[in-house]
Specification:
Length: about 525
């Protein structure tokens, strides 16, 4: 499958997944409220399996599995024997961690949110956690199966399966509201049955998406069997890589703990844990649709070039991928920034709540372009089997986040704390990206990115008036007092209008100045149709 078709398939699946994911969050906000202690309690508990999964999965799988599977595919049996052993090893690892995490639920909740939660809120969060933590096993198996499929250039299932999670969750949350009502943001109103239905629904959604991926796995003709004969599968090399990626993600979780503890102090009437997660969800729409959709196929091809020692082709893919990512990501940044308030209104129960969340979203957006560059640079290290260097530049980023988040905790008023924490994370990510690029250049030599950086500057100069045009549409609608903030539906429509205006102006400028990357993007779309 070509890069164009693969990127288009991932983008289409991701777009559908993100739209249904946004609807899922809208329904959840309707059930528990956008600002309040119940929403923060659920958000903390539901984030626990995600956080642990990132430790054992995101770093280890992305950094270790994809390059190993690419190499194993060249074996006589297309790597099927290796995949059986790998799947068994992952099953045992994830199951073991899930059991330990389940029994440590009270400790984990207090580890993340004891600073600002009341005793009643901690108790509710712990009840939620017992139902949410089993998600960890299914997250892990989903990621393992999906990354293996990605490495074998089967991108569609991993991109489309999360839609089932969202559909199941939406249905379950609607049933919850039919049974118990909506906007239940008072802890005293909750009982064990309500906890079971809400948190159990969230877990059932993760189970559903994993089952869907298993179906595609079997349909692809890859044997689904367990094999405990791990000797000879290169565990020593994989363990070395996994150690560094594990340390990298553990550092990230330490940062997450400090951030959540800092945010929990604002729980109640201000933007806190749940509001920050919702702003992050909006931020992840362009990240997933653009960075993951375009970057994932490039990562597989970069891994192939690295395995075959085709350094010239690899450098060409690095430069091209960053330019294409920048072409789309800069206008997305401008459009989402212009639509920050209406987009936040979709996940808020009032205009005032939306205006409180919007600065958090704006702060996150500062790092969107750097994260696109980092995605390619970091995965190039992984393609070369180097997980130690990503650990180094992640430690630098994490240290900056830790230091300045602690400063925020003691100096920034609670009403601005969520935005300040987001800005600290974004700025630290910029430093991380610069350092990572310098270290990659030292590893493989000159990257030839001079023309790429100049292209990004051109894109930025065109994105500024595009974003201004979008913000002008927001002001013409009445701004904070206009129709775009009247309710969730108008907020969604307003965000679409603003994005359309910004996109149209940006596209016009690209045509007027005959930007060569636009032709590459158009050819990519044409190629995926062929």
């Amino acid at each position: 499958m070509g890069l164009g078709r693969a990127s288009a398939m991932i983008a289409a699946g991701t777009l559908t997944s993100r739209i249904t994911g946004l609807l899922r969050t809208v329904v959840l906000v309707a059930a528990v409220g956008s600002l309040g202690r119940v929403g923060d309690a659920f958000a903390t508990a539901n984030a626990l399996p995600n956080g642990i999964y990132q430790v054992i999965s995101a770093g280890v799988l992305t950094g270790v599995i994809v390059p190993q599977v690419v190499r194993a595919t060249a074996q006589k049996d297309s790597g099927h024997a290796f995949l059986a052993k790998l799947l068994t090893l992952g099953f045992v690892l994830v199951a073991g961690v899930t059991v330990v995490a389940f029994f440590c639920a009270p400790l984990l909740v207090r580890l993340f949110a004891s600073a600002g939660f009341t005793p009643e809120q901690l108790d509710l969060a712990t009840q939620f956690a017992y139902w949410c933590i089993p998600q960890l096993f299914f997250y892990g198996m989903f990621a393992l199966l999906g990354e293996i499929l990605n490495a074998r250039k089967m991108f569609a299932p991993y991109a489309w399966a999360p839609i089932m999670n969202n559909v199941v969750s939406i249905a379950g949350f609607l049933v919850f509201m039919m049974l118990f009502g909506s906007d239940l943001n008072e802890i005293s109103a909750w009982n064990s049955t309500m906890v079971m239905v809400l948190a159990g629904t969230a877990t059932l959604g993760i189970v559903a998406q994993t089952v869907v991926l298993i179906f595609f796995w079997r349909k692809a003709g890859i044997p689904l069997r367990l094999d405990f004969r791990w000797r000879g599968m290169g565990l020593g090399h994989m363990r070395t890589l996994a150690t560094w990626t594990l340390l990298t993600t553990l550092i990230g979780q330490l940062v997450g703990i400090v951030q959540t503890q800092t945010l929990s102090k604002a729980s109640g009437d201000h933007a806190s844990v749940f509001a920050s997660q919702n702003a992050w969800l909006v931020y992840m729409v362009p990240y997933s649709m653009i960075i993951l959709a375009i970057g994932t196929p490039y990562f597989t091809r970069i891994s192939e070039h690295a395995a075959a020692k085709r350094d010239v082709e690899l450098r060409g893919d690095i430069a091209q991928s960053i330019r294409i990512l920048g072409l789309f990501i800069l206008v997305a940044t401008a459009a989402v920034a212009a639509a920050a308030a209406p987009a936040s209104r979709v996940f808020s129960n009032s205009a005032d709540a939306a205006l409180a969340v919007a600065p958090v979203l704006l702060a996150f957006l500062v790092s969107l372009l750097p994260m696109a560059v980092l995605f390619i640079v970091q995965r190039t290290f992984y393609a070369y089997g180097d997980a130690r260097t990503p650990f180094i530049f992640t430690v630098v980023q994490a240290s900056l986040v830790l230091i300045f988040t602690i400063v925020v905790a003691f100096t920034v008023p609670v009403e601005w704390r969520a935005a300040a924490v987001a800005l600290v994370q974004a700025c630290s990510g910029i430093v991380q990206t610069v350092l990572a690029t310098i270290l990659l250049r030292r590893k493989i030599g000159p990257l030839g990115l001079g023309s790429t950086w100049r292209a990004l500057v051109r894109f930025a100069l065109m994105a500024i008036p595009a974003g201004a045009a979008g913000y002008g549409a927001y002001l013409l609608s009445g701004g904070a007092d206009g129709w775009m903030l009247q309710d969730k539906l108008w907020g969604a429509l307003g965000a679409v209008v603003i994005a359309a205006v910004a996109g149209a102006v940006y596209l016009l400028l690209l045509f007027l100045f005959r930007v060569p990357e636009l032709r590459v993007a158009i050819d990519t779309v044409r190629n995926r149709r062929s």
